């Protein structure tokens, strides 16, 4: 008798009833595996992990409710229809019945995904939360070659190109996406484009709706009608800005997000840009936008208001970063990314080529972005910097000195803004320099508003103050910690002296070691209680503790390796 | 062509008839003449050859020209027909006569001519014929490509068949025709720019050559494109000439009456119409295109209604966000993030899954950064993750690992406890298996497998007495009464009750009296059917020897010092024996024992008795003589047991290195199990009589000291704090510390090691 014998006539119970393997699910739905996949992708259904895998460990299990969810979806029938229709067309073609074939092709069944989107993302925020993958995918496909012989339709790619300047407005949501290298991507064979295209199909629709909502919120029509000339020369982003600027904004100025007005980049209030990770992923654009729902603004409660203002200050800081600067992009720099970034941070930008707003010989240009070994003709009135300068400035939120980024020089290391250096335990050298510069910039700028605005009732100034205080507090806290450390060290040494340990004997040893040794000598063993307290832990906690310790150890090793490498590099430099 | 040929055959027959009749007909000469005249209007002629339907009437000037000719010579339309047509017959006498004369002149020739005229097959070398032929060839050369034998002879086959080949086909002699070298686009474009006639050139893939269209041909194409006849001189609406009706034509071609079906509407057609009508009514057939709905619209209106905005179905687990790029993934990372060549090489030796997937590289400027080759693959992997990975909610705890440790009181507060080795007792030559401390705290007895029992003065570590019992000593215990320094020793199957002579004078007498065994008693015992134990006097040691049937492992004294118990594990029903020293009496109260007994202990205060089997501890009430409790240890093999002096807590050590603390008021399951401290078997566990201390010793050469506080408040659980690991013994033959005992009054611990040393640990 099998282990899980169920007498005849008795229903399945528990995990056996709740979960179903993929093969069974496909049979249950009476579709092919390919259609099942598509359904799963479109409906966002994923396998689940049952507590007890009744049918074996190496199978994929779906929840029965999920499968029923698919079962009742009209899309299932649509897919069946499409399959039947394809058969009919094939038959007509085989019979050389051109007439029928044309008629059939004319009436091909289609489906729409809008219902699925509202089902999967009942609120706008939900949609924004899932936008990361969507943007990455769409950007990737925009950069793909127009598929010779592949099954990727050219139309699709073209669509994607149009999506390129999809903007992300986010209500408190961070959206990060990758933009592929502007050069052609190589199509690989080990990728199933059917799957990708199904995802893309869904993402396109999603992005369409999200864009519509965003455009709608600033009273702009979607899809935009762009200047064909500008579009032709691939300056779509600029065309976009012009289009939005040209739209009459009449009635609902109040409902507009406060900060989105001036710069023609609607909705892009705060954005973090980081770019170019080595050979890989190029621009990573991170947009973060504060809440700017019109409704929400009306019903602001006091404390939430404070929060709102808080983000506003940050946004303002971002928007004014390149306020008085005028940039000119040379031919060889990645234009799309920079065109996207610079206006978002308040700068004016132009480029070499047709349709640019101003020419290279413009006197007002403060910075020219150049990525070539030498620059031929040089205007003295402007600075020639490498594109990394822009990205580093944005990441640091201050204007960095340009000396290191000048033409022909090897720029300083480009650091990722996503890493929490303190948590990681290793702070690269350049990060420290940036930190110092930031602190310097803040000290220079920040006392001013406090002096000007005397009335403390203004919440904004209060907040600014608050921020200053906070940063200062952070700094002082750090100082304090250092002082404490020194103090402790001093005390320890004193203790040792009291215990009569010769200072000279300890001199060559590490300080930590000496402390430990001293403690051990004075009867209280420091290490043993650590060992012993583990005895009374429950097994679960002990295992967890051990695992965490291993993790910490690994992290420590990594940091150690970094320090070692740095030391080696410095040593070799000296030699 | 087939049709025209067919008709020409028909006509042929007719004409033959007619020629036999010799009524009148178009002569070959006439035709020749006509051909001569028509030469300018070659296009029309060529069409006539083909027998196109437009031949009959013309509207253009050519046509009129032609008409005039035809009027003149009554020969019209296609030559084939004209030649053989019977209809011209009576019209032109002159011609006819002409013809006749000709016929009479050269009969044979004409017949040949006729044939030739109808089917252009046979190659006649007649003069006329050749003449005619030459005309035709002249006409054909510029008009229709059909007649020009094409270069290629492959016929009507799909040209893809030759796509891969180097030749396009075969010429008339069967030789391969090579493909011409293709010009590249720029070249052909440049050539086209230079050549004004380029627009007229067409590429013929069948013959692989470029054909330049003449102006006439271009015109023809234009006309065809506009839906007109190719030739301008064709009148599609010419008045109908009923060639089949003439005055005395005789009987009709077919005399059959017109069938009925010609007059009634088709049933099938009607059926089809009905079907279409129904389909239209029911909406299967639609003629208006479906309305274009807007592609995108405002899907999310107001998000304020929370009830509607809930996702239905199972709880949604959002996909985890992909990991953000760190410093080392930058295109220009700091130097320290770039691995050296050796490190990169060493990655090859690592396991596949441990190997870093991404090796940082440094580019000196942005323009040097190449495309990332894995971009598509990674996106694809992400897609797979999204729809193929089972998602589960996992709690990721972000806490300091130190916070997991239980909050224990500081060790300083728990002092005193044994921590350092203070004394060593050396003298045994074999592993010291057992030790026991006198209740007065002055003496320690030890038994070793070298066959000796020694008594030591604790404070000086001096060996006071040595007895050589001859066999490995299993267990040694002092009598718990301070005034009776009696030692019980288990040696093999015997238990020796020994007078140590350490008592003062008055007690010495009492001891002597106690240890006096009469032989008669022995005899009497022997008279019994099954003597469990024989009490024998041992003169050598001046002691009592209790002879058991099987090996004795442990001895435990009752607190009052009169009773003691011995455990004979292989004794079956007589495994646990109770002995009364004063009466020299033995009985086995536990007839039925569940499991193999390991040790048996008296309760320190009450009349209770603990028997531990390999997996359980049974608690008996000696007065009621029944089982009170069964403690489930959950251990594989219990090795030792110790009772808290309070009497409600028990610790049990096991051979798998685990120790259980039972709070008997709480439950019959362990209150706490300490699993991880000893690597090897626990040999003994012990409670201190006064201090809240307990210890365990193990074969892994360590002994642990714990603080074990039992509160009088029943609501408060006992506090267990590990205090100290005592190391110092050396392993010998895989055995470590064999026994541990606390000093009865001081917080001192004695450990007996397999390295034949006894150690005293003091605070």
UniProtKB/TrEMBL annotation, chain A:
<dbReference type="GO" id="GO:0000463">
    <property type="term" value="P:maturation of LSU-rRNA from tricistronic rRNA transcript (SSU-rRNA, 5.8S rRNA, LSU-rRNA)"/>
</dbReference>
<comment type="function">
    <text>Required for maturation of ribosomal RNAs and formation of the large ribosomal subunit.</text>
</comment>
<feature type="region of interest" description="Disordered">
    <location>
        <begin position="516"/>
        <end position="575"/>
    </location>
</feature>
<dbReference type="GO" id="GO:0030687">
    <property type="term" value="C:preribosome, large subunit precursor"/>
</dbReference>
<feature type="compositionally biased region" description="Basic and acidic residues">
    <location>
        <begin position="551"/>
        <end position="575"/>
    </location>
</feature>
<dbReference type="InterPro" id="IPR036420">
    <property type="entry name" value="BRCT_dom_sf"/>
</dbReference>
<keyword id="KW-0539">Nucleus</keyword>
<comment type="similarity">
    <text>Belongs to the pescadillo family.</text>
</comment>
<dbReference type="GO" id="GO:0043021">
    <property type="term" value="F:ribonucleoprotein complex binding"/>
</dbReference>
<dbReference type="InterPro" id="IPR010613">
    <property type="entry name" value="PES"/>
</dbReference>
<dbReference type="InterPro" id="IPR001357">
    <property type="entry name" value="BRCT_dom"/>
</dbReference>
<protein>
    <recommendedName>
        <fullName>Pescadillo homolog</fullName>
    </recommendedName>
</protein>
<dbReference type="GO" id="GO:0070545">
    <property type="term" value="C:PeBoW complex"/>
</dbReference>
<dbReference type="Pfam" id="PF06732">
    <property type="entry name" value="Pescadillo_N"/>
</dbReference>
<keyword id="KW-0690">Ribosome biogenesis</keyword>
<dbReference type="GO" id="GO:0000466">
    <property type="term" value="P:maturation of 5.8S rRNA from tricistronic rRNA transcript (SSU-rRNA, 5.8S rRNA, LSU-rRNA)"/>
</dbReference>
<feature type="domain" description="BRCT">
    <location>
        <begin position="317"/>
        <end position="407"/>
    </location>
</feature>
<dbReference type="GO" id="GO:0005654">
    <property type="term" value="C:nucleoplasm"/>
</dbReference>
<dbReference type="Pfam" id="PF16589">
    <property type="entry name" value="BRCT_2"/>
</dbReference>
<dbReference type="GO" id="GO:0003723">
    <property type="term" value="F:RNA binding"/>
</dbReference>
<keyword id="KW-0698">rRNA processing</keyword>
């Amino acid at each position: 008798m099998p282990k899980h014998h169920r007498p005849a006539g008795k229903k399945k119970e528990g995990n056996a009833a709740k979960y179903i393997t993929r093969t069974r699910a496909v049979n249950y739905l009476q579709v092919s595996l390919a259609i099942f996949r598509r359904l799963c992708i479109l409906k966002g259904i994923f396998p689940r992990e049952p507590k007890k895998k009744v049918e074996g460990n190496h199978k994929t299990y779906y929840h029965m409710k999920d499968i029923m969810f698919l079962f009742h979806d009209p899309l299932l029938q649509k897919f069946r229809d499409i399959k039947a229709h394809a058969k009919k067309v094939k038959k007509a073609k085989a019979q050389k019945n051109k007439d029928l074939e044309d008629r059939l092709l004319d009436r091909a069944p289609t489906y729409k995904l809008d219902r699925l989107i509202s089902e999967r993302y009942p609120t706008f925020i939900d949609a924004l939360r899932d936008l990361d993958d969507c943007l990455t995918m769409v950007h990737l496909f925009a950069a793909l070659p127009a598929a010779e012989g592949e099954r990727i339709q050219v139309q699709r790619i073209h669509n994607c190109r149009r999506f390129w300047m999809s903007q992300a407005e986010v209500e408190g949501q961070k959206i990060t996406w990758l933009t592929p290298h502007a050069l052609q991507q190589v199509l690989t064979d080990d990728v199933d484009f059917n799957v990708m295209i199904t995802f893309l199909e869904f993402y396109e629709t999603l992005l369409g709706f999200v864009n519509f909502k965003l455009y709608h919120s600033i009273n702009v029509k979607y899809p935009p009608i762009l200047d064909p000339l500008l579009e032709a020369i691939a300056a779509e982003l600029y065309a976009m800005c012009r289009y939005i600027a040209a739209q009459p904004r009449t009635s609902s100025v109040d409902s507009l997000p406060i900060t989105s007005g001036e710069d023609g980049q609607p909705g892009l209030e705060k954005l973090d840009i980081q770019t170019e990770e080595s050979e890989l992923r190029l621009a990573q654009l991170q947009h973060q936008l504060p809440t700017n729902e019109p409704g929400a603004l009306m019903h602001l409660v006091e404390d939430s208001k404070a929060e709102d203002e808080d983000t506003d200050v940050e946004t303002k800081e971002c928007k004014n970063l390149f306020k008085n600067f005028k940039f000119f992009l040379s031919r060889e720099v990645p234009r799309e990314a920079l065109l996207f970034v610079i206006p978002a941070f308040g700068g004016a930008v132009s480029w070499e080529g047709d349709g640019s707003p101003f020419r290279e010989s413009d006197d007002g240009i403060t910075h020219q972005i150049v990525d070539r070994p030498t620059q031929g003709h040089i205007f003295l009135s402007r600075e020639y910097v490498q594109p990394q300068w822009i990205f580093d400035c944005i990441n640091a939120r201050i204007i960095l000195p340009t000396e290191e980024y000048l033409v022909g020089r090897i720029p300083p290391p480009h650091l990722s803004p996503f890493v929490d250096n303190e948590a990681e335990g290793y702070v690269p050298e350049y990060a420290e320099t940036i930190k110092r510069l930031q602190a310097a910039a803040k000290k220079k700028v920040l006392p001013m508003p406090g002096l000007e605005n005397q009335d403390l009732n203004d919440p904004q100034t209060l907040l600014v103050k608050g921020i200053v205080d906070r940063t200062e507090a952070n700094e002082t806290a750090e100082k304090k910690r250092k002082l404490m450390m020194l103090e402790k060290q001093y005390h320890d040494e004193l203790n040792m002296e009291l215990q009569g340990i010769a200072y000279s004997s300890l001199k060559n040893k590490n300080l930590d070691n000496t402390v430990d040794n001293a403690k051990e000598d004075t009867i209280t063993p420091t290490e043993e209680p650590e060992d012993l307290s583990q005895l009374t832990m429950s097994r679960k906690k002990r295992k967890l503790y051990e695992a965490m310790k291993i993790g910490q150890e690994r992290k420590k090793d990594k940091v150690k390796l970094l320090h070692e490498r740095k030391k080696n590099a410095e040593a070799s430099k000296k030699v | 062509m087939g049709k025209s040929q067919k008709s020409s055959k028909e006509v042929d027959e007719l004409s033959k008839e007619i020629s036999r009749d010799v009524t009148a007909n178009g002569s070959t000469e006439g035709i020749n003449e006509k051909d001569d005249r028509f030469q300018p209007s070659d296009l029309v002629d060529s069409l006539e050859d083909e027998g196109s339907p437009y031949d009959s009437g013309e509207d253009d000037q050519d046509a009129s020209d032609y008409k005039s000719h035809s009027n003149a010579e009554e020969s019209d339309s296609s030559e084939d027909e004209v030649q053989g047509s019977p209809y011209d017959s009576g019209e032109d006498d002159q011609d006819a006569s002409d013809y006749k004369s000709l016929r009479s002149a050269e009969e044979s020739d004409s017949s040949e001519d006729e044939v030739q005229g109808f089917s252009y097959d046979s190659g006649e070398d007649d003069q006329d014929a050749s003449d005619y032929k030459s005309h035709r060839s002249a006409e054909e050369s510029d008009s229709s490509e059909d007649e020009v034998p094409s270069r290629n002879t492959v016929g009507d086959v799909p040209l893809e068949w030759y796509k891969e080949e180097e030749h396009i086909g075969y010429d008339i002699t069967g030789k391969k025709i090579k493909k011409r070298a293709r010009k590249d686009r720029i070249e052909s474009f440049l050539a086209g720019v230079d050549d004004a006639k380029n627009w007229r050139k067409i590429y013929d893939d069948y013959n692989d050559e470029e054909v330049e269209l003449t102006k006439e041909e271009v015109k023809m194409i234009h006309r065809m494109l506009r839906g007109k006849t190719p030739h301008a001189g064709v009148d599609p609406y010419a008045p109908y000439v009923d060639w089949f009706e003439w005055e005395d034509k005789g009987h009709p071609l077919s005399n059959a009456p017109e069938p009925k079906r010609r007059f009634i509407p088709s049933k099938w057609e009607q059926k089809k119409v009905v079907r279409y009508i129904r389909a239209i009514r029911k909406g299967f057939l639609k003629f208006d295109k479906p309305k274009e709905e807007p592609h995108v619209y405002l899907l999310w209106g107001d998000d304020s209604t929370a009830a509607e905005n809930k996702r239905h179905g199972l709880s949604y687990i959002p996909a985890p966000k992909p990991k953000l790029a760190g410093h080392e993934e930058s295109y220009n990372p700091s130097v320290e993030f770039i691995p050296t060549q050796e490190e990169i090489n060493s990655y090859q030796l690592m396991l596949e899954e441990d190997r870093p997937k991404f090796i940082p590289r440094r580019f000196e400027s942005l323009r040097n950064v190449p495309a990332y080759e894995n971009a598509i693959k990674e996106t694809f992997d992400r897609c797979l993750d999204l729809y193929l990975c089972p998602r589960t909610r996992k709690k990721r705890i972000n806490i300091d690992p130190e916070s997991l440790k239980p909050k224990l009181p500081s060790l300083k507060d728990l002092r005193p406890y044994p921590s350092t080795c203070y004394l060593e007792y050396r003298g045994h030559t074999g592993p010291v298996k057992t030790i026991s401390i006198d209740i007065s705290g002055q003496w320690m007895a030890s038994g070793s497998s070298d066959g000796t029992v020694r008594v030591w003065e604790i404070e000086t570590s001096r060996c006071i007495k040595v007895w050589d019992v001859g066999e490995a000593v299993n267990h040694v215990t002092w009598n718990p009464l301070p005034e009776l320094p009696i030692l019980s020793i288990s040696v093999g199957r015997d238990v020796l009750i020994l007078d140590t002579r350490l008592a003062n004078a008055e007690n010495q007498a009492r001891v002597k009296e106690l240890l006096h065994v009469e032989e008669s008693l022995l005899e009497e015992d022997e008279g019994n059917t099954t003597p469990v134990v024989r009490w024998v006097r041992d003169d050598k040691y001046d002691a009592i020897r209790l002879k058991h049937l099987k090996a004795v492992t442990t001895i435990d004294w009752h607190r009052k010092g009169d009773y003691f118990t011995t455990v004979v594990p292989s004794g079956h029903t007589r495994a646990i024996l109770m002995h009364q020293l004063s009466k020299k009496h033995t009985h086995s109260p536990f007839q039925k024992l569940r499991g193999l007994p390991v040790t048996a202990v008296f309760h320190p205060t009450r009349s209770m008795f603990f028997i531990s089997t390999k997996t359980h501890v049974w608690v008996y009430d000696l007065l009621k003589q029944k089982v009170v409790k069964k403690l489930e240890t959950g251990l594989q093999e219990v090795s030792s047991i110790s009772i808290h002096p309070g009497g409600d807590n028990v610790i049990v050590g096991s051979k798998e290195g685990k120790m259980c603390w039972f709070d008997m008021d709480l439950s019959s399951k362990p209150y706490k199990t300490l699993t991880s401290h000893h690597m090897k078997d626990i040999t003994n566990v012990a409670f201190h009589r006064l201090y809240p201390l307990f210890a365990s010793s193990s074969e892994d050469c360590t002994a642990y000291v714990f603080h074990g506080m039992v509160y009088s408040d029943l609501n408060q659980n006992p506090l267990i704090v590990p205090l100290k690991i005592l190391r110092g013994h050396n392993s010998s033959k895989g055995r470590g510390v064999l026994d541990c005992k606390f000093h009865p009054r001081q917080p001192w611990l004695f450990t007996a090691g397999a390295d034949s040393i006894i150690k005293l640990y003091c605070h």
